[in-house]
Design goal:
This protein is α+β, with helices and mostly antiparallel strands. It folds into 4 domains: 5-23 and 642-670; 37-268 and 597-621, Sandwich (Immunoglobulin-like); 286-297 and 482-589, no CATH class; 305-478, von Willebrand factor, type A domain (Rossmann fold, 3-Layer(aba) Sandwich). Helices cover 24% and strands 35% of the residues. α3 (322-336) packs antiparallel against α4 and α9 (553-569) runs antiparallel to α10. Residues 1-27, 37-44 and 634-652 have low confidence and may be disordered.
Length: 671
């Protein structure tokens, strides 16, 4: 290239790069979250979600939850709002209503494609409509079309959830924000159910854009020993020995950027064991049951065989700060308890991975010190290539001991199905335990990994509880309470058990089974297994089970558990049989699933097709403790005003014209 052209080309390229950098994201960028881009045209309408109010009724191990989200259009144009929000992986979402101008519309559950088509048609016709879709079992997306200036729209969501106790403590969790998901997939070719990953985020430290309130009533059949919230300041009103009303303190700082956690214990740490039965709604229909049975006490350490631990630790950018510090403390705690007969290895991962040793190492003091030194060098940075790290981890040769894999991460990735399939196909004789760290952990990934790995999930959200959490996790994975678990039914016809096969039981977590039965529930349930070096068994008489008048509550919980297992088993190729079963369960039990959605349409036409409709993506709040590094770092991008773009374009033309004049003068001089 001529030396005369080089300055010209460089100037043009730099100027064009400046224009592109200040404009919309390029089409060839990777699918992934970004900072909210504020146009400045109608800033108030950029954040249509005004408030979220949660009411929970908790009866023993079952929670019934109602969530009311209020949307308001404070701008001057009609808008379509998109809002991505989290939910419990165990939530059986069974109801949605929309209220606008005194008109209340009850949503219908439809096959996902049909629901989306109905929504798009209503939007085009100028009708106000809401669409609720499941993007992941713990991530939902709400779309509201044709919210006119001044409109106030209320959307109420209803779901049921089973609470499984650990160490005698029940825990109810309401998730408030979706953590950013790292993705290396091209945005231009992303599937429709993957595009939510690119939802914008407010930078760390941003003020609240929507209010949040929560009230929970806990009612048990026995005296309450303790009710606490490790996540928020709450007011607790004990109505009587077995009832408490819990409310988030009105002066609790906003925004809602961390999970709300409520824990309660019954007197003497009792677990509500026994059988709950939901009789058929009509003759010939199916009934459902829930079995919760506390296992034996923890076996002595001397009875535990040699173990081979593999620690897989996330050191990516979203783990910076409290999460990676907790990960270090956890591995240090686990390493300190290794016995001479045990072995171990460590794999660290971010954008790539680093393995301590090609094979497992004896648990000698020198080897443990080398592992801790490697971990202490990490501060958190880079992407989260968990899939590649797990491929490498599952291929690492182990020792002769019982292989236990401990995965430590916040789970901010979007490749859950691939991970679950990888673990199931390559786990072998190992057990996998997932330890989630962070104020808003991806619980779908943590719990799904544990299900696929026949282990247990564990989550720590509070830096102050990190050390105690590490101890509890170590105690959980050190020794199984009950192995080789078998459940048999005598005298009544039972099928479709979930989970199945029954996983091993660890550290005072009860055996929890949901199932379907036909005919009368009048036989027995027998549970047996191995505890340490001894046989263990228990028996429950079905005729003594508590009968519920819950209008299908246990049926919904059973269906949700069955759907979760089918989703975990979903192969990367399209499996029509599993898709059909999930769809059928969603339609039959009126549940939100990956293949069924809720659609509510107000038949009143309120906007003419000729009027403009502005699309607004409600930005999510970064979870507490997560820095801008999780979304690429840097400051909030600000979209330029049209006048700014005009000036930049003019500058580019001036540079081009100036270069051409210089080139012409130089050429004339040479001639």
């Amino acid at each position: 290239m001529s030396t005369l052209f080089r300055p010209l080309v460089c100037c043009v390229l730099l100027a064009l790069a400046a224009v592109v950098a200040l404009g919309e994201p390029t089409a060839d960028r990777c699918l992934g979250p970004y900072f909210a881009v504020k146009s400045g045209a109608e800033p108030a309408s950029d954040f249509p979600l005004r408030s979220t109010s949660v009411t929970a009724e908790i009866a023993g191990p079952i929670a019934e939850v109602h969530v009311v989200q209020t949307y308001e259009n404070r701008g001057k144009a009609a808008i379509e709002a998109t809002y991505v929000f989290p939910a419990s992986t165990r939530a059986a979402v069974h109801g949605l209503t929309m209220t606008l101008g005194g008109r209340r519309v009850v949503a219908q559950v439809k096959e996902r494609g049909e629901a989306r088509r109905n929504y798009e048609l209503a939007k085009a016709e100028g009708k106000t409509a809401s669409l609720l879709e499941e993007q992941r079992p713990n991530v939902f997306q709400m779309n509201l079309a044709n919210i006119l200036p001044g409109d106030l729209v209320e959307v109420e969501l209803a779901y049921s959830e089973l609470l499984v106790p650990s160490e005698g403590t029940y825990e109810f969790v309401y998730l408030t924000t979706v953590g950013p998901r790292y993705s290396n997939r091209p945005a231009a070719t992303a599937a429709s159910d993957e595009k939510w990953v690119a939802n914008p985020y407010l930078p760390e430290g941003s003020p609240a854009v929507a209010s949040f309130a929560l009230e929970a009533r806990v009612v048990t059949g026995m005296p309450l020993h303790e009710v606490t919230s490790p996540s928020h300041r709450v007011g607790i009103d004990f109505r009587n020995a077995g009832e408490a009303l819990v409310q988030i303190a009105p002066d609790e700082p906003q925004p809602a950027n961390r999970d709300f956690i409520l824990r309660y214990r019954m007197a003497a740490g009792a677990i509500q064991t026994g059988l709950l039965i939901d009789p058929p709604s009509q003759p010939g229909a199916d009934g459902h049951f829930l079995l919760m049975l506390e296992g034996p006490t923890r076996p002595a350490v001397a009875m535990v065989p040699p173990r081979d631990f593999l620690f897989v630790v996330d050191v990516s950018g979203s783990m910076h700060g409290f999460p990676i510090d907790t990960a270090k403390a956890l591995v240090r705690e686990l390493a300190a308890r290794l016995r001479p007969v045990d072995s171990f290895n460590v794999l660290l991962f971010a954008g790539d991975s680093r393995l301590l040793s090609p094979t497992s190492l004896p648990a000698s003091p020198d080897n443990v010190a080398a592992a801790l030194a490697l971990l202490d060098q990490q501060s958190g940075g880079g992407g989260t290539e968990l899939l590649a790290a797990m491929r490498r981890a599952l291929a690492v040769p182990g020792s002769e001991g019982t292989r236990i894999i401990a995965v430590v991460t916040d789970g901010y990735v979007d490749i859950e199905p691939e991970l679950f399939e990888l673990v199931r196909a390559n786990l072998g004789r190992s057990s996998l335990f997932a330890f989630g760290i962070g104020s808003a952990v991806n619980r779908h990934l943590i719990e799904g990994l544990a299900r696929a790995g026949r282990g247990e999930p564990f989550v720590v959200t509070d830096p102050a509880k990190a050390e105690a959490g590490a101890v509890r996790f170590r105690e959980m994975i050190e020794s199984p309470v009950l192995t080789e678990v078998k459940v048999t039914f005598e005298g009544w016809q039972v099928d479709e058990l979930a989970p199945w096969p029954v996983p091993d039981v660890f550290a005072r977590r009860p055996v929890v089974l949901a199932g379907r039965y036909r005919g009368e529930a009048g036989g027995k349930v027998r549970v047996c297994g191995r505890s340490g070096d001894s046989d263990w068994h228990a028996e429950v008489d079905a005729s003594e089970g508590a009968r519920l008048n819950s209008a299908g509550l246990l049926g919904r919980l059973w269906a949700r558990q069955r759907i979760a297992e089918l989703a975990d088993m979903q192969e990367l190729k399209l499996d029509y049989a599993r898709k059909a079963e999930v769809t059928q369960l969603g339609l039959r039990f009126n549940l939100l699933t990956k293949y069924t959605s809720f659609i509510a349409i107000d038949e009143l036409v309120r906007r003419t097709p000729a009027d403009p409709l502005r699309e607004v993506a409600q930005p999510s709040v970064l979870p507490e403790g997560v820095t801008n590094l999780a979304v690429g770092g840097g400051d909030v991008a600000t979209a330029p005003e049209p006048a700014t773009l005009l000036l930049l374009g003019t500058a580019v033309l001036c540079i081009v014209a100036s270069g051409l004049r210089r080139y012409r003068k130089t050429s004339e001089a040479r001639t």
